[in-house]
Design brief:
Its main location: membrane. This protein has 762 residues and is of the alpha+beta class. The protein has nine helices and 36 strands. The chain has four domains: 151 residues, Sandwich (Jelly Rolls); 110 residues, Jelly Rolls; 149 residues, Sandwich (Jelly Rolls); 198 residues, Rhopdopsin 7-helix transmembrane proteins (Up-down Bundle).
């Protein structure tokens, strides 16, 4: 055949340590039909500070592959919520082959067509809280590339028609495909009139959706006469691929005929008419009645010169495997919030003699990023005292309605499904499927009565079941200890839970490492009450007539207390404002406290107007910096270094003018400045290098205590009044005096150094 090669690539992305599915990087690919091989080239490299990260440690990278929907992964081995079905996926761990680069290759032979998803992450780390910009972090970038080879012009088989084929000596196999429409209960492939070798040395392989593999359904035509391979309960609305392969070592040319027969389960006594092409019944549910045959106005398919009509005997092997399928009404409320309503529902009657079948259609790509929820509730009063059990089978792309009354399984050799059951004892059953595959999901409900010999058909008992099916973003909205986040990768949306307070799991229901209520209360009280340490600095500032500084400390204490009360991960949370407002005010108050303290230490009060300008300028610049990046290193260092520079200049000027070290007394250095500087340095070191997610509540509380304590040491004493300007003498007499300094009013000189020439009027 003729091969076509396609290439796909994605932009490199930074990987993060795994905490929840919200921390992984998801990549979306689309594999075309008739693909015989797909090769993923997995490129990973390190970066540090814009260059290659040769010094970065080697950290293993785990990549997950799944067809149809994102992988449901659980690398931390946490517990899933009850009634949750976990679909499987394939995982691959990459190891480093070079200091800063590694490449992995993942091959898939005859992959399923459609959407494929790759998820990648780093292993879980210790949860260290690092200050942004303090040092260059190691970044691990991951870039997947996809190369596919697909066959073109694959021969199409038409049901009821015979295709003749000759296999030359240099050929090993012949590949065909046939489309299986809805309401097909059986696919029968047969090889006829095998000539050119003794015993028909051919293998017959059949597979749905993609070309067959070595482990696909296989039949050796040498050992079976006639060479017929049947597929019961085939997938609806999909291509089935037929591979006729020659035994190795067989010389010469082999000629044979291939035919396919499809059994229409809506008319089990008849095969699908040869003149009715597959496309005619794609959207025509026969269970609701159709004209069928020639009345549809369809013409027979084009016949090739090697094709002849071959009447295949019709059997009723699949009788009663196909029942009327009731559709559901799709009601979209929001993203991943879809309700599926049943016509004349939600109460469903399940008769004793036949199953009730419903179909739920999930849209491609759009619906695979949520959770499919199914709920069955049995109306016990409808059982009339009988021991009735209603079984439900949820299957993808084909309903499973076996005629075996004693069968309570929802799986076959080629079909997997999910089983639900309700009875008088357990009248409620739920099923949750995270990240379901898109397409048609079929729910088949059957009622059986329990006897001493097992389950048997019920007589004259019609069970009534309440059925609810809906699509939600997360499982139970992640509970009270989680947050459901809507995530996006390129044009693909998906939802995932982000847990808090030590809770884990897909729905934040695993409490193995959860914080107790007492622990949450203790951490909240420590973070809030540690701000009371600002009361002594406020008292010192008021006593020293630093009223502006005292106001800033009160502002910081107030908003830091209520910010940490609102920032708690558990249920001990109290918010007086929006979280973003509280966070901004807390950060602004912290930086303004540092700013006004250092400016106060610079002793700029004699130059009153210039000091006010600095206070106002600091508030405006800090507000701008926090709005740009609240977690940046230079938001703290920049204002602090600038204020320290102003203080150093002021102290140096006083030292030069007085020709004596400033501050002049050694007691001020020994008992105030040095201890305050050491306490502040210890607080900064704890904040930058020791704080982690596990010790945050007490390390950050110590940070509050140390910062507030350092302010109490560093705040300068009350400034002494200037001796250069005494009080103005007042003349005794009746009335009042109005003293005006002409030069001060005109703004010509500094009032602190000007002589007093006043005009007094009485």
């Amino acid at each position: 055949g003729l091969f076509v090669t396609d290439y796909f690539t994605r932009t490199p992305r930074k990987l993060s340590p795994f905490r929840s599915f919200a921390s992984i990087e998801l990549f979306h690919f689309h594999i075309p039909e008739d693909t015989v091989i797909a090769v993923w080239n997995l490129i990973t490299f390190k970066e540090q500070g814009g260059t290659f990260g040769d010094q970065c440690p080697d950290r293993s990278i785990t990549v997950y592959f799944r067809s149809g929907a994102p992988s449901v992964i659980n690398p931390l081995h946490t517990h899933f919520p009850r009634d949750t079905a976990v679909p499987g996926s394939f995982a691959l761990t990459l190891t480093w082959t070079l200091p800063n680069r590694t490449t992995g290759v993942f091959n898939v032979t005859s992959p399923l067509p459609g959407d494929w998803f790759l998820a990648a992450h780093l292993p879980k780390d210790e949860g260290k809280i690092s200050v942004k910009g303090l040092y260059e972090e190691c970044q691990y970038l991951f870039q997947p590339q996809l190369i596919v080879q697909r066959l073109v012009n694959i021969a199409v088989l038409y049901p009821g028609h015979v295709t003749e084929q000759s296999m030359a000596p240099h050929n090993r196999s012949c590949l065909y495909k046939v489309f299986v429409p809805s309401y097909t209960s059986r696919v029968l492939v047969e090889v006829l009139r095998c000539r050119g070798a003794e015993g028909c040395p051919l293998w017959l392989r059949v597979r749905a959706k993609a070309p067959p593999l070595h482990n696909s359904t296989t039949l050796d035509c040498r050992e079976h006469t006639p060479c017929q391979l049947a597929q019961d309960l085939p997938f609806w609305q999909h291509w089935y691929y037929v591979l006729v392969e020659k035994h190795p070592g067989v010389p010469g040319t082999i000629s044979f005929q291939v035919t396919v027969q499809l059994t229409d389960c809506s008319r089990p006594s008849l095969a699908r008419p040869p003149f009715l092409p597959s496309s005619a019944s794609m959207n025509m549910p026969h269970s609701f009645g159709s004209a069928g045959g020639l009345a549809l106005g369809d013409s027979p398919p084009p016949t090739s010169p090697n094709d002849t009509k071959h009447p295949v005997p019709v059997t009723s092997h699949a009788r009663e495997r196909c029942w009327p399928v009731r559709p559901t009404l799709r009601n979209e409320l929001d993203t991943f919030s879809v309700h599926f309503y049943i016509f004349f529902g939600p109460n469903v009657s399940v008769p004793p003699d036949r199953p009730a079948v419903f179909v739920i259609n999930l849209l491609p790509v759009l619906d695979s990023g949520g959770v499919l929820n199914l709920e069955l509730r049995l109306n016990v009063s409808s059982l009339c005292g009988e021991n009735v059990t209603v079984f439900g089978c949820l299957n993808h792309e084909v309903p499973l309605t076996s005629s075996d009354n004693t069968s309570v399984t929802c799986e076959t050799e080629s079909l997997a499904g999910f089983l639900l059951s309700v009875n008088a004892t357990a009248s409620l059953s739920r099923l949750r499927i995270p990240y379901p595959q898109t397409g048609s999901w079929y729910l088949s409900l059957r009622s059986l009565c329990a006897t001493e010999n097992g389950f048997e058909p019920c007589t004259n008992v019609t069970a009534e079941v309440y059925l609810r099916a809906y699509l939600s973003p997360c499982i139970n909205d992640c509970g009270i200890y989680g947050q459901c986040k809507l995530l996006r990768t390129n044009n693909y949306l998906y939802a995932a839970c982000e847990c808090k307070a030590g809770w884990n799991g897909w729905g934040c229901t695993d409490n193995a490492e959860a914080f107790s209520y007492g622990f949450q209360l203790l951490s909240t009280l420590l973070l809030c009450l540690s701000n009371v340490m600002f009361v002594p600095p406020v008292a010192i500032a008021v006593r020293s007539h630093y009223l502006l500084e005292a106001a800033v400390y009160i502002f910081t204490m107030f908003f830091s207390t209520f910010y940490h009360a609102c920032d708690q991960p558990g249920i001990v949370v109290f918010c007086i404002m929006e979280y973003d407002v509280l966070q901004f005010c807390d950060f602004l108050g912290s930086l303004m406290s540092v700013w006004v303290t250092v400016i106060a230490m610079a002793r700029l009060q004699p130059i009153v107007k210039q000091a006010s300008v600095l206070y106002l300028l600091g508030a405006m610049l800090l507000s701008m910096a926090l709005q740009m990046d609240r977690h940046g290193l230079w938001n703290l260092l920049g204002p602090s270094l600038f204020a320290l520079g102003i203080m150093a200049v002021a102290w140096t000027a006083r030292t030069i003018r007085r020709r004596h070290c400033y501050p002049p007394t050694w007691k001020r250095w020994a008992f105030y400045l040095c201890p305050g500087a050491l306490i502040a340095a210890a607080a900064v070191l704890l904040y930058a290098f020791v704080e982690t997610e596990e010790n945050y509540f007490y390390i950050h509380s110590i940070w509050h205590l140390l910062i507030a304590g350092s302010v109490g040491f560093l705040l300068p004493p009350r400034a002494k009044p200037s001796r250069r300007l005494g009080p103005l003498p007042r003349r005794k007499g009746c009335g009042y005096q109005l003293c005006v300094n002409e030069q001060e009013e005109l703004g010509l000189v500094d009032p602190a150094v000007a002589s007093i020439n006043s005009i007094c009027t009485s």
